[in-house]
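User: I've been trying to design a sequence by hand for this structure and keep getting stuck. Would you show me what you'd pick, starting by listing the structure so we're on the same page?

Assistant: Good idea, let's start from the same input. This is the structure you sent:
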């Protein structure tokens, strides 16, 4: 259903449009470059999520062949053990049975390892991309840290170490709004991965990114509300 799943193409298009908006209003700002990185991450997520649904055929063939070989070896061992042998005492039988059980456990672990190898490879790749989204969320937050709404309403004397404050009230509000949009889209890009790849570890990582972006966006909107409701100083 079109309105029950995230559309990677639409998300990529939205991020690209946002970058144009940021570049048109703040062409020399670092936020424009950060938004460009977000465009690349959105495009990569669009392509990567398509690959997640495709089977890794070569890996599956190799894993299947190894599993078949292990099962064949196990069958041969069971056949050998089940063949009656003269002079087999009870202690010998118990020792052989114990060794067979240990081998069966190890074989089961090996089969599970090979059977889940593809999923673990995909999980590692997805977690690497989600980590990049987590990092860019913090980078976006760094760009808004020094944007003080109180200074736009009531300019104060700066010290030599004070950050440059070149935005008026309207442009500062736009800047903060763009930061909030970028954080929201960062969470949506992360959600693309878990939508096409059902994995508990990936889901937990994506939820962490969404919680992070929501919290950072809330801080930004507190600044926006100060700008919207504050009374500028009289000149």
């Amino acid at each position: 259903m079109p309105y029950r799943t995230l559309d990677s193409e639409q998300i990529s298009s939205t991020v690209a449009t946002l970058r144009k908006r940021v570049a048109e209003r703040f062409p020399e700002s670092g936020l424009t470059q950060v938004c460009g990185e977000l465009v690349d991450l959105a495009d990569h997520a669009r392509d990567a999520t398509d690959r997640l649904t495709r089977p890794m055929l070569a890996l599956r063939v190799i894993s299947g062949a190894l599993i078949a070989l292990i099962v064949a070896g196990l069958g041969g061992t069971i056949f050998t053990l089940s063949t009656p042998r003269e002079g087999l005492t009870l202690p010998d039988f118990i020792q052989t049975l114990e060794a067979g059980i240990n081998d069966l456990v190890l074989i089961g672990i090996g089969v599970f390892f090979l059977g889940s190898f593809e999923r673990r490879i995909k999980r590692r790749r997805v977690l690497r991309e989600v980590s990049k989204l987590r990092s860019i969320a913090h980078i976006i937050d760094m760009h808004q840290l020094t944007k003080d709404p109180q200074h736009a309403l009531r300019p104060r004397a700066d010290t030599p170490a004070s950050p440059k404050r070149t935005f008026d009230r309207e442009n500062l509000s736009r800047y903060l709004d763009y930061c909030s949009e970028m954080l929201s889209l960062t969470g949506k890009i992360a959600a693309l991965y878990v939508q096409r790849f059902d994995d508990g570890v990936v889901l937990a990582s994506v939820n962490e990114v969404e919680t992070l972006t929501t919290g950072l966006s809330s801080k930004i909107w507190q600044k926006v509300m100060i700008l919207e409701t504050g009374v500028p100083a009289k000149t």
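That's my pick for every position. To get oriented when you compare it with your attempt: Residues 152 and 168 are 6 Å apart (CA to CA). The chain is about 80% helix and 0% strand.
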